[in-house]
Every structure is written in C-alpha cells, then in structure tokens.
Amino acid sequence: MKVDIQSLGTFNQLAHEGAKEATQSLAQMTGIDAVVDVTKITLLNREDVGEELAGQEFVGVQFDFEGALQGDTVLVFEADSVGPITEALLPGGADSEMEKSGVKEIGNIMMSGFIDGWADYLETSIDHSPPTYIEDDGAEILPEVPAMNEQPQVFVFKSQIEWVGESVNFYIYMLPEYEPLADLMTEHAETESDAIPIDKLSVFNEMTTSGTEKAAENVEMMTGIPTEAEVTQISFAPIEDVPKQVGNDTYVGTVVEFTGAPSGYLMVLFDEVSAQNVAEALMPTQPEGEGLTDHHKAAIEELGNIMTSGFVDGWANVLQSSVDHTPPRLVHDMGQAIVDPLAAQVGQQQEHSFIIESEMQTDDIEFRSQIHALPNEQELREALDELQVDRADETDADVEQIF
Amino acid sequence: MKVYDGSQTEQSTTAQPERKKVGIAEYTVTTDDAVLTTSGLGSCIGVALYDRESGAAGLVHVMLPRFEDGDGARAKFADTGVEVLLDELERVGAKRRSVEAKIAGGSDMLDFSENGASIGSRNADTVRETLDEYDIPIVGEDIGGDHGRSLRLESATGDLIVKSASQDSATL
Q1: Measured between alpha carbons, how far is A336 from A357 in angstroms, rounded to an integer?
Q2: What span, in angstroms and rounded, lies between the C-alpha atoms of A309 and A213?
Q3: For residue A152, is pLDDT > 90?
Q4: What is the pLDDT of residues A153-197, one digit of tens each?
Q5: Domain A195-402 carries which CATH code?
Q6: Which among A9, B14, B114, B157 has most CB atoms closer than 10 A?
Q7: ipTM of the complex
Q8: How far is A200 from A153, CA to CA, in rounded Å?
C-alpha cells in the first residue's frame, strides 16, 4: 500500500476544512469567535495519542463513525472553559445538567459539520452515532486503546482551535481505524513517483525513536540524570503551518542543517526552565548571575551538539548511510520564530512538510526537551524507498513478503 | 475561570477593540478599529498597510519572496501578499494614494544558505520593490537582525507595535 504526498496533502486539507466547518457552526450558535490554528496528520503509537493534553481536565463529546471510514472522533476543551462556553450559549447561568447538555449540543453541531465535510469530499457516506458526553484528565478523555492492538501505529488527524481573545483551546481528534483509512488513502493516491509505502513511514518513526533513545543516552551520560525518550511521531502539514507546531513561548536550543539522505534541519529545543536546570546539572559550580547566563548557553550548546549527534547516528545506523551535520547554532527566541526561517528554507522546494518530533524528559529535575526535524521531502521519500523494511525491526515479519 | 494574557490586562479597563489574529500566509483587513496581530516572525515579514483618510488597515504575514517560484496561497509570498492585501484594502474603501506601509521581520536568524542572500533579506527586498511599484511609501520599518518578532497593528491609529523576546517593544 502506498500513499502519495498529494493525497496526504488532500487529507490534511480535508481535516482542516472539517475543523473550519465545525468552528463556523460554533460561531453561528454561540457568537464565539474561534479560529483553527493547526491541523496535521500524525502517525504515532496509539498509546501516545493525546500527550499534549497532559495535566489538564477536559470535557467534550465523542462519536463513533462508520462507512467508508470507521473509528472514533472526539471534540474536547478545557473543563475550566465550560462556564464561558455555556454562558455564550445560554446567557444567564446554567446548572451542571444544563452545562452538560450545552456541551453535547455544541459538540453535536460542530462534529456533524466535521464528519459531513469528509463524506462530501470522499463522495461516500459516513454515519455517526449520537454524541456521548465525556469528561476526564488529559489523554484519558480519548477513546481507550484497543486491548487487541494489532496496529500499534495509527494515523490521527488533530486540529487545534483557538477561541480568539480567550486562552481557550478546543481540540478535535479523529482516530480512524488504520486499514480502511490506508485503503482510502491508497485509492486517492496517484501511485506514480511521489508515493511512499505507508508501512515505511512507521519504520521511519522507529528510526526516530532509536535516534531519540541515543540522544537521551547522551544526555544521561553527560549529566548523570536518567533521561527517557518519550513520544515519537511523524506529522505532515502545509509548510505555513509548520512554525505553529512549536508555540510562542521562548525556547533555548540548537539548530543544525544535516546533509545526506535525507537532508534538512534539526532543532533541539528546551523551555527556559529546563534549559537552566539541565545546564546547571552540567556545571561544576553554581553560576553567578540571574537567569540564563552565557555559561548556561555554552552548556546548552554542548548538550545540543551531543543530542544532535546521537539522534543523527540513530538514523544513520538504520539507513546504513552517513548523515552529516553543521556545527550547532545556539538560539534563544520565540519558538515560532525559530522554526519559521527553517520552514521557509524547506518551503522553497516543497509545499508541504514532514515534521519529525520527539520528546524526552526526566523525573529527577524539571526537564523536557523536544527534537524537531524538517527533512527534504523528496530525499526522505528516496531514503524510504531504499530502506529495507526488516532492517529497522527485524522481529516483525514483512507482510508483503508473506502474501 | 478566564485567563487573560498580558496585553489584554493592560486594556481591561476600557472597551476592548476586537482582536484578529493573522496566521502565516494569511491577511486581514479592518475598517472598525480592530487590533490585528501576528506572531513569531523569523525570516517572515509582516506588512501593515494603513489608509489615514478612510481609516482602513490591513496586515499580511508573508513567508517566501516570489509567487512565481512556488505553490500556495498568494498571501504566502512577498510580492503577491502585498498585492492581495492592497486589493482587499481598496475593496473596503481605502484609496491607494493615501495608503502608507510599515514593515517588520525579515530576520537573518538561522539562515543556512551558503551562497546568495538570506530568505529574510530577499523577502524584505521583494516587499520594498512591490510597495514601490504601487507608489506606497514605507513610513516605518524594523527589518533584519537575528531575532524573532511579534506584531500588533492598532488600526485606530495605524501604530505598529513590534515585540521581540529579548528587547523592549517599539512602536512604528
């Protein structure tokens, strides 16, 4: 089964239009002025879906859908924002039962628009169940991971919607079952030059996991702090949406250009607190001065360098090729502004981009780091073409070889 | 619980003008004193156009220099982005002869191109050329350097407020 860049672009656009449709329904019903911030298709481990929701309570609605696509879709928003949202719907106050039915009502209208948009485009029918009200902490609010999970990696369509002027975010997750979606993507693919075998995308994810593990080992070796590789995912989005993947908080980190197959850019980013903590773990004595000093930055530069080398080595091992990189450039700026020039450089050759993302963290100190890579699309495709599927994961049989 | 960011707290005692966010490769115009914002400009450029006579204002966030070299929305490119913003501004009542421009962004940060000009400076050159073609004067600019910027266009006055992570904000 193959999927081409064009059809990934089309499916991304579809999810984006669906989310816009849902947002307009919300505006008509409540007067809430909201915009769709980001829509992306992500391939990741099923149990990692919803990591970005950690640490907050959410409420929302869930639907099942079936037809040309099957699966679940949910719309959730922070529990704190239920008040303002239902107030917009039912001015003058609502009790908790009314709030629940308000949430259901809003969810129903938004998600009907979302699903209908998909069905119209695919010229097929997708039925959905009535909405179920849901509330829970973090990723718990999402549908349970199936017990018999034959397909560990899944495609998820994620949209983030921002209520303008309020710090309220809505999230739409669409979790289609892998096989029907893969079939549909294959049907919509022009299987010519730019097609990528879907199974190789997940192999690439495994490569990235191995790269992140190596990077985490290097952090551990250098700082003595046990560090764990966390989520690894590969996403696909229009190039102009790439900078939004990193928020507008200030980050410290390093950026390199890597060359080889594929070429591209790689960022290692720390939020300011993590940067300060991890840099101090590397220093023999407490630095003088407040905040992030030049000593901190020098330590981050060194750390960024070994994390980059570890990550790139992980890739090169699987690809059995060499991937070189430039010396790291230190950055300390707004997240989106760091990614923007890199996306622009990649965007001179391509309209969409794959974004490889991984995270690591440690329990000992407050420390979290993200690695983002923007590979050249055509070279990534070629590298995947060259890749023997069984090289990255020798324990799994290659389905295509058996049948 | 409502959580406000800093910019809103400052204004919370007065009636707040509507705030509209302009994403990358997007543009927005207003005739009713809205505040137009765009954030995280690295090599991208924010072009603010303001017509003193009609009060119409608009903001576009462009990413790459020339439309002919790529694919995508017109607002993604410096040349067509300026054009599409000007068209839309005229459509809501602005007169080209009284339109002025303020521009910010176009940083050279993280530019790995080894030969030739950085994307930031090529974006800036193209914005300037295009504005010049339409005889629109640039009355304020904050271009280049090696840092990111966020912008707020107050369409009541035409003020363009430029913020960066490490410096105090400046008003153009």
Answers
A1: 15
A2: 12
A3: no
A4: 788 888 888 877 676 778 888 888 888 887 777 777 665 556 777
A5: 3.40.1550.10
A6: A9
A7: 0.87
A8: 12
Burial group, residue B18, by CB count within 10 angstroms (0-12, 13-18, 19+)? middle
Task: List CB contacts of A92: < 8 A, sequence separation 6 or more.
Answer: none
Q: Given CB atoms, is A325 within the 8 Å cutoff of chain B?
A: no
Residue of A nearest to B147 (CA): A333
C-alpha to C-alpha distance for A116 and A124, rounded to whole angstroms: 10
Q: Which of B2, B20, B165 sits opposite A166 (nearest CB)?
A: B2
Cβ pair A248:B63 closer than 8 A: no
Inspect the interface and report whether the beta carbons of A84 and B43 lie closer than 8 Å. no
Average pLDDT for A66-90: 81
How far, in Å, CA of B57 to CA of B151, rounded? 14
- Rounded to the nearest 5 degrees, what angle is found at the Cα of B10, between the Cα atoms of B6 and B15? 120
Q: Report the relative pairing of strands B19-21 and B35-41 from DSSP bridges.
A: parallel
Which chain A residues touch B119 with a CB distance below 8 Å?
341, 344-345, 348
Closest residue to B43, CB basis, from A35, A83, A344: A344
Rounding to the nearest 10 degrees, give the CA dihedral for residues A163, A121, A185, A188: -140
Q: Which CATH number fits domain A2-187: 3.40.1110.10, 3.90.1150.10, 3.40.1550.10, 3.80.30.20?
A: 3.40.1550.10
- B93-106: per-residue pLDDT in tens? 999 999 999 999 99
**Would you say A10 and A204 are in contact if contact means Cβ atoms under 8 Å apart?**
no
